[in-house]
Amino acid sequence: MPLVAGVDTSTQSCKIVVRDAETGALVRSGSAKHPDGTEIHPDHWWDAFREAAREAGGLDDVAAIAVGGQQHGMVALDADGRVIRDALLWNDTRSAPAAEDLIHELGDGDRTTGAQRWADVTGSVLVASLTITKLRWLRDAEPDNAARVAAVALPHDWLSWRIAGYGPADSSPLGPDLDALCTDRSDASGTGYYDAQASDGGTTGAYRRDLLRLGLGRDDVALPRVLAPSEPGGVAHPSIAGGAVDGGALIGPGTGDNAGAALGLGMQPGDIAISLGTSGVVSAVAPRRTADGSGAINGFADATGNALMLAVTLNAARVLDAARSVLGASFDELSDLALAAPAGSDGLVLVPYLEGERTPNRPDATGTLHGVRLATSTREHLARAYVEGMLCGLADGLDALRAQDVPVERVLLIGGAAQSPAVQEVATQVFGLPISVPEPGEYVADGAARQAAWVLATAGSPGAGAPEWSAAVARTLDADPRPVVREQYAAVRDLV
């Protein structure tokens, strides 16, 4: 019974699942927390990975391993493989002015033209989340650090590199081989300097070093080699994983977190996943990506060779955390309070831009509460307004996908906050669609494990497809449209 490991190095923690390569059955798991913040030294990810591996009973017996990770984070390495400065994470908005500068520059001074050109080439209009904007910020704010950059990696690339045994000479078995860095199309497509569709006429995707030069000011840096969906990126160092397996543990190409979740859920074209984690994500799988010049939709690659369109908000589960803090309520109590108020909360509306916003692109916005009256100044009304506001922002993302002619056949509600009875009920009202809620799971880690199993299968049988693992649906909820919720939200969402 060969075993595989899937790793999710997310914003908040590292989670590892060890599964049967053939059936997908869970054998064991472990997790460890990451520090809070929007800039983190990657060594914390490495420490958390080692702790999670120990909690999972070790990785000596796994035949393959793959890493899914938070997208966009800038890991800048010097020629000795050392991290130059703390990694700027996707939710660090200091590079918002840099994003605007880059859009105008590619458009020869015209923002609309520039936005469409970025979308045409990379699938995304730049916002502060994307790696290239952080490189421009580094160039302008920390020129000495920018001059030291010898390689740029993403969080999952860097962790896979460390698992293979590479890193600074004094803290890794194999030393700083920057050419050993590798990644996949899904994560590369979120950098802002990778063309996943090779619009220059190629077929396999390509880095756009001209865009990298526009961001960093130069392009003489190493970038991770982009692997095919089931192509191994090397072998784990035996001190880290696969030490008890003949030939060691193959390392999969890895994946961005949303693409990992899509793979873990077995998403196909027509499926929509609404994920309520640190960020809120509406994602759809399709044969080709969009090129949405409005910036509402990011057109990335997925982990299988398809495209993955995303509408992403900065504010999701943490909106509920904020509500719990304000109300002094537990997760269950918040749900009960919200369900005790009517749909629309009698006109109380929260626009939940609590940490700025990515979609729409309002990095400096703050949250606003509208319709405060004596009658709505209750804990129940406030709880419901927070839940409705969070979901309305994501409903706008679903509308944006529809506007790009993305088919909507099945809606999956996932993420930690998706387990709230209030979130489930309000989702049927806000989206006005049937909602399928899969069994709770670590979908990103599961997707990484499935990719590892695919890599293992391909090694034994070239051309093998991804294993047929399935995510069980716990329940399906009927649509219960309540138009008043979206109407009220639409009336005030731009008053920020």
TrEMBL record:
Enzyme class, spelled out: transferase
SUPFAM superfamilies xrefs: Actin-like ATPase domain
Entries under CDD domains matching the protein: ASKHA_NBD_FGGY_BaXK-like
Active site per UniProt: 257
Coiled coil: none
EC number of the protein: 2.7.1.17
Domain of life: Bacteria
InterPro entries: ATPase_NBD, Carb_kinase_FGGY, FGGY_C, FGGY_Carb_Kinase, FGGY_N, Xylulokinase
Reaction(s) catalysed by this chain's protein: D-xylulose + ATP = D-xylulose 5-phosphate + ADP + H(+)
Residues in Carbohydrate kinase FGGY C-terminal domain copies: 273-454
Boundaries of every Carbohydrate kinase FGGY N-terminal domain copy: 4-264
Gene3D superfamilies named among the record's database cross-references: 3.30.420.40
UniProtKB keywords: ATP-binding, Carbohydrate metabolism, Kinase, Nucleotide-binding, Transferase, Xylose metabolism
Family: Belongs to the FGGY kinase family.
Role played: Catalyzes the phosphorylation of D-xylulose to D-xylulose 5-phosphate.
Protein name per its UniProtKB record: Xylulose kinase
